Amino acid sequence: MIQVLDEGRAHAASAAAMTPLDITQQRLLNQRLVRTLFTQPDEVVRIERGEYTAAAYHFSRSGQEQRAVQVWFPQRRHARGEADAARLIFSGISRQRLDKSERTALDINPGRAP
């Protein structure tokens, strides 16, 4: 217990010796850590909520077209009323950037809403 108190005093002494710049830098580091640990990309939040069309939109906008197809197509029957939005998302995706399985998914209903 004495050792813990000594470490506590040492920590308090070093904290008291911090300059305003040190304190600002520490606050910035803490903010970055909190953002890293407690925030999630929009795509993940949308998937967790079952908002697959919105997740596909975010994936496609961030250049992750394959992920957009992978997330939306298995769930497309649950995305009722969102065919027009999905059509806009997937019509803007270049087939050359997709793997064969994703290109096949886009070909499921040619000429119709995805």
Give the topology, please.
Elements: H1 2-16, H2 20-38, H3 42-48, H4 52-61, H5 65-72, H6 83-91, H7 100-106
User: Structural class, from helix and strand content?
Assistant: mainly alpha
How would a textbook summarize the main sheet? Answer: none
* Rounded radius of gyration (Å): 24 Å
What share of residues are in beta strands?
Answer: under 5%
Number of domains: 2
Indicate the mean pLDDT: 75
Distance between the termini: 66 Å
Order of H and E elements: HHHHHHH
Ranges with pLDDT <50 over ≥5 residues? 1-8, 109-114
> Percentage of helical residues?
55-70%
Number of helices: 7
Shape: elongated
Count of individual beta strands: 0
Protein model, in words:
This protein folds into two domains: 2-38; 42-106, no CATH class. Helix content is 66%, strand content 0%. It has helices at 2-16, 20-38, 42-48, 52-61, 65-72, 83-91, 100-106. Helix 4 runs antiparallel to helix 5 (65-72) and helix 4 runs parallel beside helix 6. Mean pLDDT is 75; it is low at 1-8 and 109-114.
